[in-house]
Amino acid sequence: MLSLDQVQAYDRDGYVLVPEVFTPREIEILLAHVTTDGKVKQHTGDMPDATGRSSKLALWMDAGNDVFGAVSTSPRIVNNARMLLREDMYHWHSKVMLKEARVGGAWEWHQDYGYWYGDGCLYPRLISCMVALDPATRENGCLKVIPGSHLLGRFDHGQVGQQSGADQARVAAAIERLGVKYCEAPAGSALFFHGNTFHASEANLSDKHRRAYICCYNALSNVPYGGKGHGKPVPITTSPDDAILSFATGSVA
Known about the structure:
The chain is an alpha+beta fold. 24% of the residues lie in helices and 26% in strands. The chain has a single domain (14-234), classed as q2cbj1_9rhob like domain (Jelly Rolls, Sandwich). A hairpin with a 2-residue loop joins β8 (157-160) and β9. The radius of gyration is 17 Å and the shape is globular.
């Protein structure tokens, strides 16, 4: 469970980085499923950045009966996300971010609620948890955030390359006042961040992959109007804490 200091850091900064949430063996199992012909390859699409570099993402709405569903319903993520939201929630969607060595593109500055506002969510009561599957460093394009930016409200978003990015002038003004923090983290770490926290990442020019699994949740008080949105608005039933280990394949990426 998160400590009081970690909860207060999230409230102040809009994010909190928690080390060693998943073990090296659990990360090996996840990577083995990322690289095989399965769910990730079936759902992967390319969203080039403003320079045309490849930014690959695999996304799905269900928390299925597979290794990825075991992570999305893991009590290590779900219970802490509930604590940070201060209410019950449901699975919104999950995705694997694939920033490949030397070719992986950037992700432009944006707020997740900048997208999800259009799905009919009235409030930014959404939270994401990014699990590092590879060590995340500045060299391989780790996530960067603007601390405290979740308190700025929602910015307008438009097209930047084939991605949706926030108003560039307003982002620059926010950076001037609040600064930027690079979220370098070892594999197995989990970064919880608010739906309005500005985040981005730079291109991966290194010889090391940066892959991450991201679970997103919406508060049950924030079900979209008009039948839009992702996922099914039912409370999450957490999986056993050792569920990931039951999906061991014997192969390591």
